[in-house]
Design goal:
The complex is a heterotrimer. In chain A, about 60% of the residues lie in helices and about 0% in strands. Chain A starts with a helix and ends in a 6-residue tail after the last helix. The longest helix of chain B has 29 residues. Chain B has a single domain, classed as Rossmann fold, CATH 3.40.50.720. Helix content of chain C is about 45%, strand content about 15%. The N and C termini of chain C lie far apart (about 35 Å). Chain C contains 5 helices and 3 strands, in the order βααβαααβ. Classes of the chains: A mainly alpha, B alpha/beta, C alpha/beta. At the B-C interface, helix 6, helix 8 and strand 7 of B face helix 2, helix 5 and strand 3 of C.
């Protein structure tokens, strides 16, 4: 599985949505991505990619796209 | 054995109440990441002995609470074990008493740094593991100083009060992820920490308790075992005073 | 206990209604509140004899007693808790076991809320 597939899967699984809805997804766009859903998302991303995110990055992961930039900071290329 | 097969982190486990917790948790079957500020032959011997005596695994972790790089590194190490983190006991802390108008900025900032800010950050890290597991018990060690107010403890009491407020708030937030968070407020316990008190003050304090004696470190540790165990599964957001019934 | 001189542990049953109050539970709450005061007084009076006295203040527990209370009112209370369900009798028993045993040997005069985080 590519990193992009793994990354997309996390969003799909945590929020229970189809991959089509994910591409342009932003924080608070859907009910599931509230602050609680956000922490669950972060926990799953950290577990999937075996990284530990700094608080600033946790706060900064405000969209599916932005998340790819942030993951790169931890040496994970999402593609 | 109330904690069989559970994995616990205990900070400041090299002496005093932390050491009693190390032993009490091991007696109850828990494996432990035993934290101390730095490595020492005494600490290594302690964890080897306790591990052997109670047939549990004890893994040492070393970091200075005020060194966030060391702390983050230790959290990464704990993550490497790929084991569930079931219990966190935030026990490490300092007490530096001074009368209010003689309290320097250093005393003020330093105690908040160690007794509150570091615990806040460490708990942010560890609670994330618990969120993944959708279970966990966090036990914070405060003090009756937070609740009753004693001369010379305007800072110490305030740092412990901060812990109590934090506990109450995060017990709400983290309950959504199956995590319980509680505080223990020990009274006057027979450890090195009370060496700063004069004999008269200690006697006055003893007279002020219903049980008319000092508490022992294992008595605080046993309440931590209770809060870590399933016995307390319907208890969260609480402060339990272990103070011999202060009058 | 005083006669046998070996210390002991007394556990009184209060209720969150005794501490927080509750619509429709004026008499029940007041009677349970009495235990809050009584527990502390008993702890003070009996402490020197090594007898500990504590109380539990259970929240909404799944027992015969709560079976007959209006579902809506119960659910409203439960929604205020963190652990969003009724407590079980076993969970209350766990706390009683703690208070009766040496695990709580330095704990006396306390009211322990067993309420899933309502208060």
């Amino acid at each position: 599985m590519t990193n992009l597939e793994k990354y997309t899967n996390v969003f799909a699984e945590i929020f229970g949505i189809s991959e089509k809805q994910i591409e342009k997804l932003k924080y608070q766009d859907i009910k599931q991505w509230d602050s609680v859903g956000h922490m669950t998302l972060i926990a799953k991303l950290e577990e999937t990619f075996d990284i530990m995110m700094d608080t600033e990055d946790i706060i900064g992961l405000s969209s599916f796209e932005k998340g790819k930039e942030i993951m790169a900071k931890y040496g994970i290329e999402i593609k | 054995m109330l904690l069989k097969n559970k994995n616990a982190i205990i900070t400041g486990s090299n002496r005093g109440i932390g050491k009693a917790m190390l032993i009490a948790f091991a007696q109850n079957g828990a494996n432990i990441w035993a934290h101390s500020r730095k490595e020492s032959p005494e600490f290594t011997e302690l964890i080897n002995t306790v591990s052997k005596d109670y047939n549990v695994q004890i893994w040492p972790i070393y970091f200075d609470l005020t060194n966030y790089a060391e702390m983050k590194n230790s959290v990464k190490q704990i993550n490497e074990y790929k084991k569930t983190v079931d219990i966190l006991v935030n026990n490490a802390g300092i007490m530096n008493n001074s009368l209010f108008q003689m309290t320097t900025k250093d005393i003020l900032y330093n105690q908040f740094e160690i007794n509150f800010f570091s615990i806040f950050t460490f708990t942010q890290y560890i609670s994330k593991f618990m969120v993944r597991q959708n279970s966990g018990s966090i036990i914070n060690i405060a003090s009756i100083a937070a609740l009753d107010g004693f001369d010379g403890q305007s800072v110490y009491g305030a740092t412990k009060s901060a812990i109590i407020a934090m506990t109450r708030s995060i017990s709400n937030e983290l309950s959504l992820n199956g995590i319980r968070v509680n505080t223990i407020a020990p009274g006057i316990i027979d450890t090195d920490l009370i060496n700063v008190m004069s004999k008269e003050v200690i006697e006055k304090n003893i007279a002020n308790t219903a049980l008319k004696r000092l508490g022992k470190p294992f008595e605080v540790a046993n309440t931590a075992v209770f809060l870590a165990s399933e016995y307390s599964s319907y208890i969260t957001g609480q402060v339990i005073r272990v103070d011999g019934g202060r009058l | 206990m005083l006669k046998y001189g070996s210390g002991g542990s007394i556990i009184n049953t209060s209720s969150i209604s005794g501490i927080d109050g509750n619509r429709g539970q004026l008499a029940y709450g007041a009677s349970k509140a009495a235990w809050v005061s009584a527990t502390k007084t008993m702890a003070e009076e009996l402490g020197a004899n090594g007898i500990r006295v504590n109380a539990i203040a259970p929240g909404v527990i799944a027992t015969a007693m709560t079976e007959n209370l209006p579902e809506e009112a119960l659910n409203k209370k439960i929604s205020k808790s963190n652990i969003k369900r009724k407590g079980t009798p076993e969970e209350v028993a766990g706390v009683i076991t703690y208070l009766a045993s040496d695990l709580s040997s330095f704990v006396t005069g306390q009211i322990i809320r067993v309420d899933g985080g309502i208060g």
